[in-house]
Design brief:
The protein is mostly helical and about 200 residues long. The protein is about 80% helix and about 0% strand. It is built from 10 helices and no strands.
Amino acid sequence: MSKLIQAVGIVLAAKGYTGLTPTNISKAAGVDRKLISAYFGHIDHLIATYIKTKDYWIVASDRADELITTQAQTSSRHLLEHMLLDQIVQFSANEEMQKLVLWQLSERSEIMSQVSQMRDDVSALFFPHADEELKDKEVDLRAVTSLLIAGIYYLVLHTKTTASTFCEIDLTQEKGMNRIKEAIKFILKETYNHK
């Protein structure tokens, strides 16, 4: 079973999402393709299983309860900042997830719709804590967070697919990446300090 899950990543890296076929995956795993049906029922369930082990926000949901509990004495801003800064580092380094996000954006797919919903479920763990903290402020933290997450995805994908700068910032260089990280911190600080 683990060979098949790992093979999804191998095929994704080599052939992109269009290469995620039972034949390609079973060949990469070195097993009979009938095992996909035997273990997962359908190829989509195998792909979903793989994504659940790789997607930053789905994996983060496993730690979210613990982080929220341990961070309860401090601002939810610090938790959100930590998660966003970690996301940009993780997403920049994970070519397979980059290809999955490109797939999600380029083609309607039931599996990617389900993955998107799983990602969104993470917010149900975080935002109630932040809502309590920001209850007397006119701040739409969900909108701000949406823009930051989307910006992270876009900046990383732009850098990886075009090998060019964005607004004269080179994310392939540590200096450029640090500028984006500082901007994320600044936006969150201003959002939380808004009256």
